[in-house]
Write a structure and sequence with these properties.
The protein is mostly helical. The protein has a single domain (22-177), classed as Up-down Bundle (Hypothetical Protein Ta1238, Chain: A). Helices cover 57% and strands 6% of the residues. The chain is built from 5 helices and 4 strands, in the order E-E-H-H-H-E-H-H-E. It has helices at 25-45, 53-73, 87-101, 117-142, 147-170; strands spanning 12-15, 18-21, 111-112, 176-177. The strands form 2 sheets. A two-stranded antiparallel sheet has the order 1-2. A two-stranded antiparallel sheet has the order 3-4. A hairpin with a 2-residue loop joins strand 1 (12-15) and strand 2 (18-21). The radius of gyration is 18 Å and the shape is elongated. It starts with 11 loop residues before the first strand and ends in an 11-residue tail after the last strand. It comes from Paenibacillus konkukensis.
Length: 188
């Protein structure tokens, strides 16, 4: 099989159900989800396999789910096939957030992204996830989407914040509070 097809040389790409311009808002949305998936893979490379075996397994599942998100976003018409991303996937993310948050110290103020390399990489995942969510919001203004994808990405960015803090906590590194932050987080 050849990797190149030459079908996109004129500036269009195939989506499920047709062709669109490569800079179409739909392509921007699923392309940003793809970018996020790459950053997740990179972050996984910074995690110790023994200390973070549970998180690595969860992130691997999230990588599969991000492909599901991209697939749903590439779908021009829902009647072509059922959506892949479900409310149950969003619920599972909430369970993971609660599980991993229980291992992190309480915070009251905003924190600076950073710490150990894995934490920094997971903060990058958080910000790219937020950008993907913004692209999906833009897409949803003009075209039908699977609303669960938007919910999934919203919850996923919260998970990335939590596991970035977890990476520091399990590594014995404290988060650094933003010096000029008001108290914005409630106690657990």
């Amino acid at each position: 099989m050849r990797i190149y097809t030459r079908t996109g040389d004129a500036g269009q790409t195939g989506v499920i159900g047709g062709r669109v311009d490569k800079d179409d808002v739909r392509v921007e949305a699923y392309g940003t989800v793809d970018e996020l998936n790459c950053f997740v893979g990179q972050a996984m490379g910074f995690l110790d396999e023994e200390k973070f075996a549970d998180l690595l397994a969860d992130l691997l599942e999230i990588q599969h789910e991000l492909f599901d998100c991209g697939s749903d976003l590439a779908l021009l018409k829902q009647e072509l096939r059922p959506y892949k991303v479900t409310a149950e996937m969003v619920d599972r993310l909430e369970t993971l957030i609660d599980k991993y948050d229980a291992e992190t110290p309480d915070i009251k103020k905003f924190i600076l992204p950073g710490g150990v390399q894995a934490s920094s990489a997971l903060h990058v995942c958080r910000t790219v996830c937020r950008r993907a969510e913004r692209r999906v919001v833009t897409l949803a203004r003009t075209q039908p989407i699977n609303e669960q994808v938007r919910r999934y990405l919203n919850r996923l960015s919260d998970l990335f914040f939590t596991v970035a803090r977890l990476a520091n906590a399990r590594s014995g590194r404290q988060d650094v509070e933003y010096a000029r932050s008001a108290e914005v987080f409630r106690r657990k």
